[in-house]
Design a protein that fits this description.
284 residues, mainly alpha, disordered C terminus
Length: 284
């Protein structure tokens, strides 16, 4: 169903660009951004509850859009630095192994717990209901993004760290640049298998346009998640898809941080980390 594919890709691209644009708004606008996106998140949760109980084609699209709206709320709250974790400092240069993983997890644990709890709520809202597209979309986004985060921690070629605002610049020190890591082949294989299964299911659907749209939407969001993983390991300038949304808002300190992390510098200037950060016992 071509219209469903176009709709998913369009909403994905537009919502990602809008989220980056909002996060990179002028500082005096950020409180309004948080309040407005919270309202959208709550409305999206209500939309998921409503759409799950309806089996028509409009409800399928509402369910998908609501899942994207709820996901966007979490992402914006994270990028604004409101829901991150107790570790708010750069990773010490001499930290390795389990200690590095612990510090990295501590830097984002509140965000991850909030997402996991939201998954439980979304699954509960859709349990036993005829329309599962919202639930499936949110779960796919959660699994694929968690996989991408683990791969970025272990090491990938393209980090796209320039999208982190300056108050989250310390998170870049938990990323690792590498050609490949042991998890990536497994992620690609699992994602490819899930996409193949979803595509075959969509192809064999004979139960009407609503079910066909639901299966197509799930397959398309799986494809986009798999494509994100591919972009992590290939030397492609995929960041150009969204860099326009933030480039005009970048400050000199943001640009310095981008250059420094790409060059492998672990110690960032205090001006970059001053906003919304505080010392931690694990900091250098």
């Amino acid at each position: 169903m071509l219209s469903a594919v176009v709709f998913v890709i369009g909403v994905w691209w537009a919502s990602t660009a809008l989220a980056l644009r909002l996060v990179w708004s002028r500082r005096r606008h950020l409180r309004f951004v948080l309040v407005a996106t919270t309202a959208v998140g709550l409305a999206s949760l209500a939309g998921l509850g409503w759409s799950a109980g309806h089996s028509g084609l409009p409800a399928v699209y509402v369910g998908f859009a609501s899942a994207i709206g709820l996901w966007g709320w979490h992402e914006i709250a994270f990028l604004l630095g409101v829901v991150t974790g107790p570790q708010r400092g750069a990773c010490p240069a001499d930290v390795r192994g389990g200690r590095r993983f612990w510090l990295a997890a501590s830097a984002v644990i509140h965000h991850e717990v909030a997402l996991a709890l939201t998954v439980l709520v979304v699954v509960a809202l859709g349990r036993g209901e005829p329309n599962q597209v919202g639930t499936k979309t949110f779960v796919v986004l959660w699994v694929m993004r968690l996989s991408a985060k683990l791969n970025v921690f272990l090491g990938v070629r393209n980090l796209a760290e320039e999208f982190l605002p300056s108050h989250l610049a310390y998170l870049r020190t938990y990323f690792r640049r590498a050609r490949m890591n042991p998890l990536m082949p497994l992620s690609l294989a699992a994602g490819g298998g899930a996409l193949g299964y979803a595509a075959i299911a969509a192809w064999n659907i004979e139960a009407g346009p609503a079910r066909l749209a639901e299966a197509t939407i799930v397959a398309t969001i799986l494809f986009l998640g798999l494509l994100e993983h591919v972009f992590l390991v290939l030397p492609l300038p995929d960041a150009q898809l969204f860099r326009w949304a933030i480039r005009s808002r970048m400050t000199p300190s943001d640009t310095w941080a981008e250059r420094s992390v790409i060059a492998g510098v672990r110690e960032l200037p205090s001006g970059v980390l001053r906003a919304r950060t505080k010392p931690s016992s694990g900091n250098a």
